[in-house]
Amino acid sequence: MIDGERDTLLRTRASRAHYRYFLAFTVPALVVYVVFAALPLVNSIYYSLFDTDSGVATFVGLENYVYLFTNPTTSERFWNALTNNVEFFAIHLLVEVPVGLLLAALLTSGRLRRSTGIYRTLLFIPTTLSVVIVGFVWRLIINPLWGLVDFPLLGDERTALPTISLMSVWQYVGIPMIFLYAALLAIPGDILEAARVEGAGSWSTFWRIKFPLIAPQFGLIAILTYIWTFNGFDLVFALNGSAPGPNYSTDILGTLFYRTFFGSSGQLADLDLGATVASVIFLIILVVTAAYFGLLHRRLKSYEL
Amino acid sequence: MTATTNAVTQTTTQTTKMAKTRASDRAGTLVVHGLLIVFALVAIAPILVIVLNSFKTTPAIFEHPFALPDSGSFSVAGYERVFTRGHFVDNYRNSLIVTVGSTVLTLVLATLAAFALTEYKVRFAPLVGGFFVLGIMLPIRLGTVPIIETMISWNLMDTLVALVLVYTAMSLPLAIALLMTYFRAVPSAVKEAARIDGAGELRTMTIVLPMVRPGLAAVASVTMLPIWNDLWFPLILAPSAENQTVTLGVQQFVGQFLNDYPALLGALTLGATPLVVLFVVFSRQFIQGLSQGIGK
């Protein structure tokens, strides 16, 4: 009885000390993270409900949203940027992921020895470059003056966006490659050994054993690609500025957002409308991400080893 | 599955089949190398084109863009103009301050938080941990308008401090998630022994720090890269000539000196070199950080 009481007392005292330490250690990180990351995202939504053009903040409810979607110019620009962003995402998904898978499969084919590290590093180098360099390199290479390509790929409305998307794929293909590479390396050797003893060749081992085991990774890669491309801005801005032409054919949500709150030639800066655009983009990202984690992720996870 | 183990296990099979398997094995290895060489060339050649042409004269760049610089076309005049016409030294200094400052701050704050999140079993620890991890997926940029307002009211607009604060906030979630996996692997006996020896909690943490060193290296390498290469926040939070980072400086240089190709290519080469060198040296840590932090 007495022992029990003393135990509880000690435990509460210990856990109280734990609370104190826990707070002391996490609060510094928490403050920076909340003030400069989490809170601004929430505040963006709050700001979008106000009008500050007159100098005083007036609550206007959803008026900014109504304006964004009913004003002929802003709504046309928004739907154009959204459509372009979907295309930007689709090209990434359809080209980057299969190429990343091929590279990861080659790197883990078991036919390389020490050269694996060299190939892996070389293939990843474009990912370490800044988009300013990537944009300039490719603009120079596809420049008709240099004669490799005759057609002005960036100057034509039909080819400009696919061209920029492929430049971005060239840069970031290392990311799905590394994820899939790590997943392939994590497959236990005895499973592969068993397959080999059964007489399975490299081709059937890959498609029948390795591929199903790494399949859950594709869900994660797809959702990360979605978040990154819908948050995209840098490459388009580096190549075509904040009103990306020709005729807004390469405008995506990130450049639209920047142009709205920062202004550009022919467009005044509007902070409230900028916060509104940001909130809409946030919603677009949030709904799909939540749906993925709520519906798909667990089901995919259950197939993991 | 090397050729030798194949050969050993196949001694029981017919010799003709063995010879055939060996031949197809060798062909397969050649195909794998061939494909990887082609892809590696696609990845590297464009960068080499930039670097090589940055050492040439303007006419040589346009007449023979894919030729190596020779005695007639070799020139470093472009680099000289980069330093006289641009603000390259300042840009480098700013990028260094921002990248190192944010990385160090991220490491310190993330280490403290990750240690606490794995060490103290308090009731709301999972909640706090989840709140941090959520940030890996959050598009921080979309909070830019409120961030601008905060920086204006704190008088931090157009300063490097503003960049350091935002980048630290942006990097903390992945850093904490990564470090937690390393701290979990530290045996509790080590920490108990330290406490019995009279070490306080902070001291206990520093005693186990060497055991999570690979984690710290992984965090440092994944944190640095996106910060050095970012264009968005320097453009908005520190755009003036004296506060520009290299990435923004090169972007503006490209806009201003459109016809001076040797200088442009020199600026691009200088802008990319530090991070590419750093990545090549620390690629193992970087890849570990990337696949363990996000892939899980």
Keywords:
heterodimer, A: 305 residues, mainly alpha, MetI-like fold, B: MetI-like fold, 2 domains, flat, disordered N terminus, transmembrane (chain B), MetI-like_sf (chain B)
What would you say this structure looks like, in words?
The complex is a heterodimer of chains A (305) and B (296). In chain A, 41% of the residues are buried. Chain A has two domains: 2-47, no CATH class; 66-301, MetI-like fold, CATH 1.10.3720.10. Chain A has helices spanning 2-47, 63-70, 72-107, 115-124, 131-141, 160-172, 174-185, 189-197, 202-230, 234-240, 253-262, 271-301; strands spanning 50-51, 58-59. Chain A is an all-alpha fold. Chain A starts with a helix and ends with a helix. In chain A, 73% of the residues lie in helices and 1% in strands. Chain B has 296 residues and is an all-alpha fold. Chain B contains 15 helices and no strands. Chain B has helices spanning 3-9, 15-53, 58-63, 77-85, 88-119, 125-134, 144-153, 160-184, 188-196, 201-208, 213-229, 232-237, 246-256, 261-281, 283-293. In chain B, helix 9 (188-196) packs across helix 10 (201-208). Chain B is flat. Chain B starts with a helix and ends with a helix. Chains A and B meet through helix 1, helix 3, helix 4, helix 5 and helix 7 of A and helix 2, helix 5, helix 6, helix 7 and helix 8 of B. Chain B: Its main location: membrane.
